Amino acid sequence: MSTRFTKDHEWIRVEGEEGVMGITAYAAEQLGDVVFVELPEVGKTVSQGDELAVVESVKAASEVYAPVSGEVVAVNEALEGEPAKVNESPDAEGWFVKIKLSDKSQLDAMMDEAAYAEHTK
Amino acid sequence: MTETLKRTPLYDLHVELGAKMVPFAGYEMPVQYDGVMGEHNHTREAAGLFDVSHMGQARLIGDESALEKLITADLAALKPGEQKYTLLLNSEGGIKDDLMVSRPDDEGLFLVVNAACKRSDFDYILEAVKGVAELVELDGRALLALQGPQAGAVMAEICPDAAKLVFMQAGWFEIDGLRLMISRSGYTGEDGFEISVANAHASDFARKLLSDERVKPIGLGARDSLRLEAGLCLYGHDMDETTSPIEAALTWAVAKSRRERADFPGAERILKDIADKPAKKRVGIALKDRAPAREGTEIAVNGEVVGVVTSGGFGPTVGAPIAMGFVAKDYAAPGTQIDLMVRGKARPAEVVKTPFAPHRFYRG
Fold first, then answer.
1. Interior CA angle at A51 toward A50 and A55, to 5°?
2. Is B343 on the interface with A (CB under 8 A)?
3. How close does chain A come to B39, measured CA to CA in Å?
């Protein structure tokens, strides 16, 4: 399964029933140095577009939205000690949340890599 | 409603240097170049160059007593070559603005006021000094701030005489045939200078400063984190027309002689605040976990709201989130444990003395 993107600059990579998500390199670059990430509780149920996390840079707080509906099954606890991972490795080590998807068809309407690249031009 | 944003004489230079430009106080200003954290740290470690040309500059020539009646400084005690931080008050003793007043020569005062307040400040002063003094707005001058531990060494190479100034001194200097008003001051907590230069030469002069490898351009983002770590108030956030100087913990800016004379606007309220302690006071706040608390965050003790954060963010030099805010007087003592209600969650914090990062002014 390839990576899908939202217009709000979240990415999600789905394997089986679960997806791992974070913010894109473009978003991380726009935010600047990330100093704190507020992650949801494991077990929380979210709908697509709900506020899922908050990412704080030196200057401002920005909301991160759930790219899909589902249940939070894991959060990246490493970000607590090293929020800078979001800048260093936004699409791998800087992941935010793992979600068990409740409706995989939501992915169909999301952008693929080429469309997202066009979106951020 | 779209208002046309003004540009400073350094606009083209900012764009050339890759700045991200944002609207601020009616101007298009650089918020960052390479990144807020790096720019902040560079200013603390070497020297940063800030464009503060959006601020209002003016000369006041003539009888100074009419201006003195609106501010908290003792102008008779301001000797040639000296600068003071002072407060412009409204009739209730609330702060209309904070400003720098200096006497760089024997021709009168040199004022530097905040960008967002300058029209209102100058109108207020013009009305008060009508017939006794002349207020000359210096729209033709840009203002640069060179800040950081290397600022003195950088200045020594281009103008050795200006490098001899000590903190809160000011005067006119000549560099490359340009007449510059230079003061040893700034708003970062570091040693440094503020340099008033004619618009036509501002960009070339900035380039000259930037040609020194110790100097890097710094945007408004780092300017804000630097001043917050220095425990300095941002007008419109940490104080406004409703705030008395005493509530804002700026009692030191109300000259002793002026307190004795009680001849400034709102003197009754301000002197009462000094005597009885105001009902609320600005304090520094150290957060115990990693979540920054932004402006507007409620401050609580045992679930009861006792105040509000007026400036908050991450302090790169401190390495932790920091804030300033107003709390009811019973909670203003350093060491008081408080909670900051960040997105509905109580985050533990403590009232602390400011500055968060030690001031490193050059006092000779």
1. 155
2. yes
3. 11
Distance CA B327, CA B306 (A): 6
3-class secondary structure, B252: helix
Whether the CB of B341 is below 8 Å from some CB of chain A: the reply is no
Question: Could you tell me the residue ranges of all domains in chain A?
Answer: 3-102
Q: CA-CA distance, B240 to B169, in Å (whole number)?
A: 27
Report d(CA B22, CA B31) in Å as an integer: 6
HSE (CB half, 13 Å, CA atoms) of A85?
16
Which residues between 251 and 290 in chain B have a beta carbon less than 8 angstroms from any beta carbon of chain A? 290
Phi/psi at B157 (nearest 5 deg)? -75, -30
ipTM summary value? 0.88
Q: What is the pLDDT of residue B215?
A: 98
Residue B337 CA to chain centroid, in angstroms? 28
Ordered structural domains, chain B, with CATH: 11-53+140-229 (3.30.1360.120), 279-352 (2.40.30.110)
Return the sign of the alpha-carbon dihedral for residues A38, A87, B311, B339.
positive
Which stretches in chain B have pLDDT values below 50? 1
Q: Report the alpha-carbon distance of residue B156 to residue B160 in Å, rounded.
A: 4
B125/B113 Cα distance (integer angstroms): 12
Nearest CA in chain A to B33: A32
Domain A3-102, second-level architecture: Beta Barrel (2.40)
> Is the bond leading into B355 cis (omega within 30 degrees of zero)?
yes
Are the beta carbons of B36 and A59 separated by less than 8 Å?
A: yes
List Cβ neighbours of A55 (8 Å cut-off, separation of 6 or more).
Answer: A23, A31, A34, A36, A37, A38, A61, A62, A64, A86
CB B325 within 8 A of CB B301: no
* Across A68-97, average pLDDT: 97
Cβ contacts of A32 on chain B, cutoff 8 Å: 32, 35-37, 221
| pLDDT computed for residue A1 by the predictor | 61
Closest CA of chain B from A9, distance in Å? 19
Q: Which of A59, A80, A85 to mutate to test the interface with B (most CBs of B within 10 A)?
A: A59
DSSP H helices in chain A: 25-31, 78-81, 85-88, 113-119
**What residues pair up with B82 in beta bridges, in sequence order?**
B169
Q: Please give the distance of CA B339 from its chain centroid, rounded to a whole number.
A: 28
Burial of B50 (0-12, 13-18, 19+ CB in 10 A): buried
Q: What is the pLDDT of residues A6-36, one digit of tens each?
A: 999 999 999 999 999 999 999 999 999 999 9
CA distance B349 to B285: 7
| Residue A2, pLDDT score | 83
What pTM was estimated for this model as a whole?
A: 0.95
Q: Do B31 and A59 touch (CB under 8 A)?
A: yes
Residue B237, chain A, CB below 8 Å: the answer is: no
